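FAQ

Q: What does a record look like?
A: Structure on top, sequence underneath. For example:
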């Protein structure tokens, strides 16, 4: 049976207040045997959230209660479904030391986690590339071209893979083509095949996994998985494990995109 390795929770400031029980019951109704709650980890100390609502992650003072709540849910559903305690950790260029310290402090509580890139650094400024089409348009004004944003994204993604974040560094790389979230409004002239293959090669060499994320199908300006089918096929040929993730921010989003995702007959994890 398929695992959903990327699920958010009521602890997400930009999600819904659906309860953990609602997420688990939805997972059971879809036939999942294993799920991972991977809430956005608190942003590193000293980093200022560039989003307008400052709502990219849970707060550090919520983390203990988050762990307690997932432990409670594990007890309730013991024997019915495997539930993993996890986080989606942001890799942020220039904050590697702070991220490593965070993981060293809290990594022992984690069963499963994701390392993602949402924030890009350009000329000393940080932007959240997937916040909104308006935000991406503002980045475009600064970068000059969509291609420049894509190059920065894939370079940062490579940095995240190679970065030393300590023994608790997540080994699944989140939605590796998230930069394409607004591609129908801000198209690029090439596929960035070389850059994507460099990312896959780095993931393979590191023996990491890929978050095969179905959320892009529900985004009106994307309409494809993160990564798209050809990338998933290349990863599969290379022997890279792809773990399905709904990236659900409300319980009804569990399973999103799954029916449209294939690996040429190979099962998803």
């Amino acid at each position: 049976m398929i695992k959903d390795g990327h699920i958010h929770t009521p602890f997400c400031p930009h999600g819904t207040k659906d309860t953990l029980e609602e997420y688990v019951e939805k997972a059971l109704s879809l036939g999942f045997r294993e799920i991972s709650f991977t809430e956005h980890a608190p942003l590193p100390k000293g980093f200022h959230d560039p989003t307008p609502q400052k709502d990219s992650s849970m707060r550090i003072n919520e983390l203990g209660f988050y762990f307690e709540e997932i432990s409670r849910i594990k007890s309730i559903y013991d024997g019915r479904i495997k539930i993993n305690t996890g986080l989606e950790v942001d890799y942020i260029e220039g904050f590697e030391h702070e991220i490593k310290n965070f993981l060293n402090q809290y990594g022992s509580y984690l069963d499963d986690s994701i390392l993602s890139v949402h924030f890009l650094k350009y000329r000393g400024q940080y932007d959240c590339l997937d916040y909104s089409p308006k935000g991406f348009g503002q980045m475009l004004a600064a970068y000059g071209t969509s291609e420049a944003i894509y190059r920065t994204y894939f370079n940062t993604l490579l940095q995240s893979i190679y970065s030393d974040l300590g023994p608790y560094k997540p080994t699944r790389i989140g939605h590796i083509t998230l930069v394409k979230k607004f591609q129908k409004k801000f198209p690029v002239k090439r596929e960035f095949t070389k850059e994507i293959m460099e990312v896959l090669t780095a993931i393979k060499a590191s023996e990491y996994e890929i978050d095969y994320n179905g959320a892009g199908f529900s985004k009106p300006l994307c309409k494809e998985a993160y990564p798209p089918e050809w990338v998933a096929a290349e990863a599969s040929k290379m022997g890279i494990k792809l773990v399905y993730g709904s990236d659900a921010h409300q319980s009804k989003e569990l399973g999103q995109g799954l029916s449209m995702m294939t690996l040429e007959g190979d099962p998803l994890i």
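Q: Is there anything notable about this one?
A: The domain at 3-260 is CATH 3.20.20.140 (TIM Barrel).
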